[in-house]
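[step 3/7] fold_predict: job queued, chain A
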Amino acid sequence: MNCFVVANPNKCIGCRTCEIACVLAHADKNPLTAGASEMEFHPRLSVVKTATVSAPIQCRHCEDAPCANVCPVNAIVNKDGAIQVDEEACIGCKTCLMACPLGAIDLVPEYEEGKKVLQHGLKIIDASSNCEKEKMIALKCDLCVGRTGGPACVEVCPTAAFRVIKPQVMVDSIRDRRKASAAELAKTVVKR
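[step 4/7] structure written:
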């Protein structure tokens, strides 16, 4: 089973600290020395706010990942216990966006050394210009694989709304719920 991060909407205050931590965890440049125009802000999770609730939405690293199953170039794979996007292989076709039941994937411009990567041969033609189009790639939570402290969102949340759900946590939870269900069933049978 894959790990994933889940947030408790009853604890989330919608501060978006998790989004900032995510961007910083994946930044190629030091935010203290880079200029504001040099930093791309593309978090791999999205805080959704409504009148009644706020909650981060992010990839659940599905076991039978719909995004990976529909990717025509196999750019989405199960690697290191997480569903990962191979950004070099991604062609930006948007199929994974449509397949994700959570809406946890975005399409963002690809950057190399702080500059947008352009698609050679594909042009944008409008009334005022004729220029090369930027390359777009899928972006989603990668559980901060390789980061020593684990997912940055979990580490920085001021209300501790996030939890990393590991396979053993799921197995234990299911076992405990089954025991509780059996105990309830036993009470019901005894009363009859």
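[step 5/7] annotate
DSSP finds five helices and twelve strands in the chain.
The longest helix spans residues 167-191.
exit 0
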